[in-house]
Design brief:
Keywords: Membrane, Transmembrane, Transmembrane helix
Protein name: DUF2627 domain-containing protein
Number of strands: 0
Radius of gyration: 17 Å
Pfam family, one: DUF2627
């Protein structure tokens, strides 16, 4: 059961990150989605969404590796 929860915790931000990349890609082709008033705002929203999801997934992996003592000594808890 815990593995399914961990998978769900990783999939939801992953999907949000993909949406962020899609929003940024659509700006390059000049496609403005409903709900955004300008292309630059759509790009900014996509970048923030992607960065937030990337930092969440990275933090999750870092926390798991630190718990299992698989990080360098400078990152381990004292």
């Amino acid at each position: 059961m815990q593995r399914y929860i961990a998978l769900l915790v990783m999939v939801i931000p992953g999907v949000a990150g993909v949406i962020g990349v899609k929003l940024m890609r659509d700006v390059l082709f000049g496609i403005l989605h409903h709900g955004f008033f300008a292309l630059w705002f759509q790009f900014l929203a996509g970048m923030v969404l992607f960065a937030a999801c990337l930092s969440f997934v990275g933090g999750f992996i870092f926390y798991r590796d630190r718990k299992r003592n698989k990080v360098q000594s400078r990152f381990q808890r004292k």
